[in-house]
Amino acid sequence: MKPGLLRFILSLLGAIAPGLAARAAVTAFCTPRKSPAAKWERIGIVLGKASQLRLDGESLDATVWGYGPTVLLVHGWEGRRGQFARIALALAEAGFRVVAFDGPAHGASARTRTTLPEFSRAVERAAAQFGPLHAIVGHSYGAAAAAVAMRRGMRVERAVLIACPFSLRHVVRRYATRVGLSARSRKKMYPLMERLHRCPAEQLSFEAIGPDLAAPCLLIHDEAAPAVPFADGERVARAIDGAELMRTQGLGHVRILRDEDV
């Protein structure tokens, strides 16, 4: 659904039925929009080897590049594996076997909805199928999913978290503001999200996740990324013992994946 239309519908519903508006917002939040891959993404995919990730009876498209220790790449919300093509090719050239997959309800996936716990289970399954993992690189929502999987016991030697949000609650609050959800509807949205995710919101925050991450972590975050503000990167870095934070400028939330220095 187009953002303008969604904002209009939620604003109208919020005025007459805050609970219904909250449910509609949760449904929209968990339904990522799909967009076609750019030419450079498609070229990067062709240069790899096609594979599939098996998850809960569904086959998710994956691509494997190169040979050597395995690095798993996890795209963000409304992203796809091709967005990591340049990083994948650089890592393959450096002597790594690189794996990226389209997450549930993303890319070529037939599903339309997903949640952070479902996404993190896909990460765990990818680690089991393609591992052992030398490293994992996650972007945005995918970085959070990678961290949740690591906290649940997924073994990885090191992690790179790019534009990682601090907590699901922070993400939901920014989303609710962006779509014009009323304060009454917003309050009703949080418990609905907790029931959908089947865990307290506090467990999907780096206040809980960070102290349990034992692998060395590099965080990369741009100063001008309104989708996930730089303050989130700073808070994530403080929550993980020994984490290193790399600051970029002028790359925003997605172009950061195509930058040579990154």
Structure description:
- By secondary structure, the chain is α/β, with parallel strands linked by helices.
- Helices cover 42% and strands 18% of the residues.
- It has an eight-stranded mixed beta sheet with strand order 1-2-4-3-5-6-7-8, with helices on both faces.
- It is globular and about 55 Å long.
- The model has no long low-confidence stretch (mean pLDDT 90).
Furnish the topology, listing elements before pairings.
Blueprint: H1 3-16, H2 18-29, H3 39-46, E1 49-55, E2 58-65, E3 70-74, H4 85-93, E4 97-101, H5 116-130, E5 133-139, H6 141-151, E6 159-162, H7 168-178, H8 183-197, H9 206-209, E7 217-222, H10 230-239, E8 244-248
Helix pairs in contact: 1-2, 2-8, 3-4, 5-6
Task: Give descriptors for this structure.
262 residues; 42% helix; alpha/beta; 18% strand; 10 helices
